[in-house]
Amino acid sequence: MKKLIQENGPSKVWIQTWLDESGDAAEPYPFPENDDWTGQLFNYYFLSNFSADGVGVIDANHSGFPALKELLDRYFQGGELSGIHAALVQDWADSSGTASEDAFWFSVAWDQFQVDEYEGKALGFYFARERSTFLNMNGAEPIVLRGLPIKKPEFACLILPDGMDGFQIYIQEPNTSAWSRKLFPFLRQTDDAFHSKEFFKMCKSFSEDVIVKEHHQPREQQVSFLADSLQYASENKSVNFENFKQEVLKEPAIIDAFDQYQEKYTEQRQWNPPDQFAVTEQSHNQAKKFVKSIIKLDKNFHIYVHGNKERIDKGYDENRKLHFYQLWFDAEA
Fold it and tell me: At what angle do helices 219-236 and 192-206 cross, to 10 degrees?
């Protein structure tokens, strides 16, 4: 997990509590100057729950992106924050209806932010509505207070320039949340987990569309290919496309078909995978559930295939008028 905690607290924290009477997003007010201790508390709340798995990039060709880019440029080039804050608060209020007195929006700016090779401005947006009861014991009498627990907001987004007139985004949200899809429909997840999932989906589609339908290969060829793909990913802990084609596909005709299918698949999905990426354990386990290495024979038999398609022969018995499989093995397990 990539740690984004900074040595210095945020430069500015603006808070949006609720919409004004007109229903429009009210202008946020800056949080008072805080000392180093308070600044570190804010850093923990705003930054500790991000990880490298939440990194994404923006599709600059998406129709919804230009308006946001103009607002982002105003901040990163001139420090203007109010416009983008109001736009995102209003967008979320319009699409979700969750803006209320019980909800808080935070816009947070860091003038000096460091991560990897980047050093410069950073901008974060956060939404929280969970309330807790606190007992304040500092005065002569204890006071019961209500406030936000310092663990993590419901939604968090951190935006940094990528050095190429674009931006990279860190997202923290519940697994079932639609935050990023509503606020950033142009966001593309580009972490290893995303690439792994798309790779296994592509392999499954390729096996059905090309191996079975176009090349008219028997079902055991499809199952064997999927089993070999899973085994390759498991053994290598990563996918290198050139290496994958040589070790799994092997035959030049199948490799050419795979190249053509990958080009079409990635274009349709707007997926731009690197030449090599790590296969996460979670995505591999998920793939094993939907990439079934099973040949189902009527309702009588299931054959589980884990590779070595050379040890499976398929035929047809003219006398019995039935298809059959022959399985060749060294010994019973």
Answer: 160
**β 167-172/155-161 pair status:** antiparallel
CA distances from 108 to 38, 93, 103, 161, 253 (A): 14, 19, 16, 15, 54
Q: Which residue has the tokens 């990913």?
A: 233
Q: In this structure, are residues 115 and 4 in contact, taking their beta carbons and an 8 Å threshold?
A: yes
Which tokens in the block code for residue 31?
């949080």
Other CB atoms within 10 A of residue 285 CB: 9
Contact 233, 284 (CB under 8 A): yes
Q: What is the pTM assigned to this prediction?
A: 0.56
Using DSSP, state whether 105 is helix, strand or coil: strand
- What pLDDT, in 10s, does the model give residues 42-76? 888 888 888 655 566 666 667 777 878 888 888 88
3-state helix, strand, coil in the chain (%, to 5): 40, 25, 35
- For 141-187, what is each residue's pLDDT tens digit? 788 877 777 778 888 888 888 766 677 788 887 655 566 677 777 77
Cβ-in-10-Å burial (0-12, 13-18, 19+) of 179 comes to buried
Burial of 229 (0-12, 13-18, 19+ CB in 10 A): buried
DSSP state of 9: P
Instruction: Render pLDDT for 224-243 as a digit per residue (tens, 0 to 9).
Output: 888 889 889 989 999 999 99
CA distance 161 to 32: 27
**What 8-state DSSP symbol labels residue 333?**
-
DSSP string across 39-93: HHHHHHHHHTT--GGGEEEE-TTSTTHHHHHHHHHHHHHH---HHHHHHHHHHHH
User: Which residue's entry shows tokens 């006071």?
Assistant: 143
What gap in Å lies between CA 280 and CA 286, rounded to an integer? Answer: 10
Which tokens sit at 296? 């189902």
